[in-house]
Structure formats: structure tokens, C-alpha cells
Automatic annotation (TrEMBL):
Gene3D superfamilies: Pseudouridine synthase. Pfam families: PseudoU_synth_2 (PF00849). It comes from the Bacteria. Keywords: Isomerase. Belongs to the pseudouridine synthase RluA family. This is 23S rRNA pseudouridine1911/1915/1917 synthase. InterPro entries: PsdUridine_synth_cat_dom_sf, PsdUridine_synth_RsuA/RluA, RluA_PseudoU_synthase. Signal peptide: none annotated. Residues 11-166 form the Pseudouridine synthase RsuA/RluA-like domain.
Length: 225
């Protein structure tokens, strides 16, 4: 657990989540990062009682990268409000199908969640029940068979990056749900929550955190070369 902690102070803790890890418990009953971290802190700090830990935001199970947890209720309420106000800047890296797309583009769509298959339906214009989804991507590396995109997220919708990139014809590597040709061996997708920038909810200092990319994936490694 310790090697996954990329930032920690008295108020918050930021984890570099691995592919397949759950950020919090769900109907699968699999152990979540929330429980793992609580148990880790309890043991490490020798805490006799319950450990307070609150999840500030989520990333999908097949995705890797940065997740913020709050260690105090004050930090949790302030960070949750910051997420709502879009005061936490989130940057992602995505490895996508190699197609002819603009080098840089701002995408605006409207997404509606289909509860039956847990998938986002993408609409080009405002539609009943659909929420506006905005992101900007830049192509930052040209690989033999893929493109590496850096994505700045303006809204935080369900499966937003996965759905919007699929809509423009460049599904994320391994993402069968949104049109990838084949799955990844680990069942994950090549989408990584790379960077977080925000003003600390208590100290008011600027915090910038970058997560190393997964080291057990040849395509991710090629992105660093």
C-alpha cells in the first residue's frame, strides 16, 4: 500500500490507483482501496479506534491513476465542494487507436447514462436527461500503432473520456465497452489519471501531483521513451 501513496499530510492522502482496484466498495463485494487504506493507516499509526477516510472523487475500476481521499471531515467537505465547483484541475493520459484526428481539439457532447449496461450514450446536442460533457485533448506522442493523448477535463461525467473519444473514432486501448478491437491482458484500459492541481483545502497552498504511469504495460512504457 505504501508504494501507492504519492502525497499525504494531516488532511488528505492521494493514491496512484492500479488497474482493477475499486476506489470504494460496490456490489461485487471486492475489497476497496478505501478499506485497504483505512487498515493500512490503523496499523501504521497504531490507531486504537476507527480511522476516518472519505472518498473525494472516483475513477473507473479499469482506469489507473490519482485518487484523493480526505483524512478529516473538514477536508472532505471542502474538497467535495471544490470538485463541484470544478476547482480541481484533472489531467489524464490516454492511449487510443491511431487515426487521423486534429492535433488538438475541444470536445463538447451531451451524455446520458444507460443504467442497464452501465454505459454513457453520447449525443451531439442538448437532449432530455443528458448532461453536458467537455474536454480538451492534445496529441503528445505518436506511437507505431497508437496515439498518446493528454486530456484536460472540464466536466466530470460518467465514463466521459471513454465515451467522447469513442465518439470521434479513437477508442481507448483495451476499452471493449466503447469500441476497442481487443481487451488488455489485465482487463484494464489505457486511461491514466496523470495529474491533479488544486489549492489545499486547509493550508491554501498550491498542490500539484503527478502519478507515474503503470510499469507493467509495454505500450505505457513506450510512451515514456
Amino acid at each position: 500500500m505504501e508504494e501507492q501513496i504519492v502525497y499525504e499530510d494531516n488532511h488528505l492522502l492521494v493514491i496512484n490507483k492500479k488497474v482493477g482496484q475499486l476506489v470504494q466498495g460496490d456490489k461485487t463485494g471486492d475489497e476497496s482501496l478505501l478499506e485497504l487504506i483505512k487498515n493500512f493507516i490503523k496499523k501504521r499509526d497504531g490507531k486504537p479506534g476507527n480511522v476516518f477516510l472519505g472518498l473525494v472523487h472516483r475513477i473507473d475500476r479499469p482506469t489507473s491513476g490519482l485518487v484523493i481521499y480526505a483524512k478529516t471531515s473538514k477536508a472532505l467537505s471542502r474538497l467535495t465542494q471544490m470538485v463541484k465547483n470544478r476547482e480541481i484541475k484533472k489531467t489524464y493520459w490516454a492511449v487510443v487507436t491511431k487515426e487521423m484526428i486534429p492535433q488538438s481539439q475541444r470536445l463538447t457532447h451531451f451524455l446520458k447514462k444507460n443504467e442497464k449496461n452501465n454505459k454513457a450514450i453520447v449525443f451531439p446536442k442538448a437532449t432530455d436527461g443528458a448532461k453536458e460533457a467537455i474536454l480538451t485533448y492534445h496529441v503528445i506522442k505518436n506511437l507505431d500503432n497508437y496515439l498518446l493523448l493528454e486530456i484536460d477535463l472540464e466536466t466530470g461525467r460518467h465514463h466521459q473520456i471513454r465515451a467522447q473519444l469513442s465518439k470521434i473514432g479513437v477508442p481507448i486501448k483495451g476499452d471493449l465497452k466503447y469500441g476497442a478491437a481487443r481487451s488488455n491482458p489485465d482487463g484494464g484500459i489505457n486511461l491514466h489519471a496523470r495529474k491533479l492541481e488544486f489549492i489545499h483545502p486547509v493550508t491554501k497552498e498550491k498542490v500539484e501531483i503527478t502519478a507515474p504511469i503503470p510499469q507493467n504495460d509495454a505500450v505505457w512504457k513506450a510512451c515514456e521513451e
